[in-house]
Task: structure prediction
Amino acid sequence: MKTSLGIWAFGPMITRFVPGGYQPVHDYRAEPVAEKVHRAVEGLGEMMDGYEFHYPDELSPENLEDVRGALAGHDIYCIAGGLHLDPRFGRGGLVNPNQAIRGEARRIVRETADFAGSLGAHLIIWPGIEGYNYPFQTPYADSWRWLIEGVGEAAEVCARHGVKLFLEHKNSEPAMKILMRNIGMCLHVVHRLRAEGIDNVQINMDWQHLLMNGEHLPEYAALLHAEGLLGHQHANSGWGSFDDDNMVGTTAFMETLELALELRRCGYGSDGERLGFDLYPYTEDQVGAVKRSLAHWRFIDATAAKIDDAALREAQHDKDAVRAYEIVYAALGA
Amino acid sequence: MGIWAVGPAVARVTPDGYPAVHRHDDEPVAEKAHRAVTGLEETIDGYEFHYPNEISDENLDEVRAALGTHDIYCIASGLHLDPRFGRGGLVHPRASVRSEARRLVSEAAEFAGSLGANLVIWLGLEAYDYPFPTRYADSWQRLIAGVSEAAEICARHGVKLFLDHRNSEPEMRILLRNVGMCLHVIQQMRAEGIDNVQLNLDWQHLLMNGERLSEYAALLASEGLLGHQHANPGLGTFEGNEIVGTAAFMETLELALELRRWNYGSGGERIGFDLYAGAENQLAAVRRSVLQWRYIDSVAAKVDDAALRVAQQNNDAGQAYQIVHAALGQ
Result:
């Protein structure tokens, strides 16, 4: 399976307590994106097949040639919408009740879709600012309608370019209550768009975003695949209810192992789908964290390959957890 | 009101229940209904029962007599009360277990329909406890097939099927775990021409998930899917089924406002009370819930909605709370 990496893993690692970031040497002004790409490509070599960038903050026509030069043959696999990086949209972009702000947000999202399409890259929309912070503040039904309209518009632009739109959910941050907060609500959006004839929208499973919700990774991989909606992965892990974006496999080990098994069952990757890495190595060496993530994933995936799937299917026929774990632990070498 | 509010309030650490005197063996359901009706009178219009454990053809006449003029508003399916389905019913991988579950759910739908009552399906055991023992895609397909079958029976009787989600308990990972997954099931069924399925908003089931009551009431109403309410709050991630308005006050107040905006109730919809009084006096807990709901709803009626709409036009939380606190009397 091919891989890709979000270039933000090579950023300054800002938190609200450390606005300059834990790694200020990697500030975007001190180290422009093309230099980050150069550092990544040099450090990771062929471990990564491609990279992902936010538009316009990380990649735009302005720096495209510099970045392409730095990529040295690696591709641009995804462009991610970046409204959450623009303070004008602090109270929402696509769902802002102010028509002028909403119109500007829609314009930028369309422009993002066009830019992605022009590169042959897929578009990721993670509508993290399309939400609210307080009860009473928001016209809910209108907001949902506006969200679906905005996403639908971007999907149509993507369709004209023959690329896909990957929806990505999260329950919170930066908006405290994000509208598209779980896989179910992604499916709601997808169903609404399908009803309008838009069928190029799939789901990007950001693993920690699911884990934060108690959403079981392999269950959703299997369900989304069965629905033809398993578009992309953002691999990472985390502790609990915050989006830690930690190294793959450092927590949620069994969940990740079962996910690897389901991805194998689905044939994920055989149509060009990739394992994307969405990491935020706060205080860790950035290249080292990516390498470790990939090494962990390869170990986990290799373990999944050793599982006697026929025997596991038999155990599943009785939902026999004890027998299932005999089989899984045998694959681990127990 | 769900009749289980006047049950023994069993916990796994207190198997006889907190008020052990209300075990079903000692106090049959008809007697419970009599106690509820006597104590609550016109505070509650109708009652809800699990089939077949709380109501069936066997005790229907006695329960009806105890109810007097009060009606049976909903029948809730009760697979989770049957130990045969500890590893799932509708989604059980074994065809014989699964078909028995489907038979019972269909029977529950027939029974509900025969009474003119709506059917609530809460799929608390259609799920799993561990990674690895479950066939996920098959399970989802079986879940939708089972619910569809029940919905078609409900449709023949002209009643609705209300889906009720929860993330956990008794199974640790319930498939139908949030409103979004309910919407997924409904969209799948709509694609097959089944359109009598709506959602039952069990408030604590949403609160446990961080799902906003008012947002989903508005969204579901706009989709024609706001079918029923199971009123209750809770303090955190476990289903407390506590007295309405004792926690999540602002969330409940905003819900009341949204229900008013969407004229909830004008099509015969109800506020159902799904309470589990624990160690409290059961009837007092129900009365307090209704009183607290009436207070909250009356505050919602005082909110200057036109002014609030203006504040919402700017996403202005500060202005919104001036308006809300004015309704509270500040």
